[in-house]
Amino acid sequence: MTQPPACARIFEKTSVIKCTVAEITRFHEAPRALAALTPPPIIMRVKRDDRRAITEGEIDFTLWFGPLPIRWVARHEAGPSPNSFADAQVKGPLAYWRHEHIFREVAGGVELTDRVTLAHRRGLIGLLTRLAFDGIPLRLLFAYRHWRTRQAL
Asked: Cα separation of 39 and 152, whole Å?
């Protein structure tokens, strides 16, 4: 795992989902989970999926924002706790992106925490990633992802 740059910031979204850790883990292990968690109007197309487990392997995909394609390669690895995993950007639009999926049993189900550590590039690319992958769009993305997870389980 590479270290985040000093300018990185952390975003977190936490919800309680009525399920077990085993169920939420199975949901995230499913090959179609990423597509199911991608909000419209964004279209996600997988080019290569070499993941051998939820904590091992890479996935190469393109996010289509209308006519604009954004290629992303993410490495899946162990997360910060036994019931977690992370995906780290190997290639993509940001200077740094690490997304931790943390599952913790609580009264009423599983506390799902999505923790994203991110940093933007300089220049025009950095401006565009701030508009697409930070602030309100980031909050909306994870509100959608938690809603979809709740619906699926």
From this structure: 14
Reference 129, options 99, 91, 95; nearest CA is 95
Supply the pLDDT for residue 31. Answer: 87
* Residue 19 near residue 150 (C-beta atoms within 8 A): no
Does residue 147 belong to any structural domain of this protein? yes
> 42 with 64: CB under 8 angstroms?
yes
Give a yes or no: residue 46 inside a domain: yes
Q: Which residue type occupies 84?
A: S
Per DSSP, the three-state class of 16 is: strand
- The model scores a pTM over 0.85: yes
Residues 146/34, Cβ–Cβ less than 8 Å: no
Based on the structure, what is the number of domains in the chain? 1
Task: Check residue 54 and report its DSSP letter.
Answer: T
Task: Establish if 4 belongs to a structural domain.
Answer: no
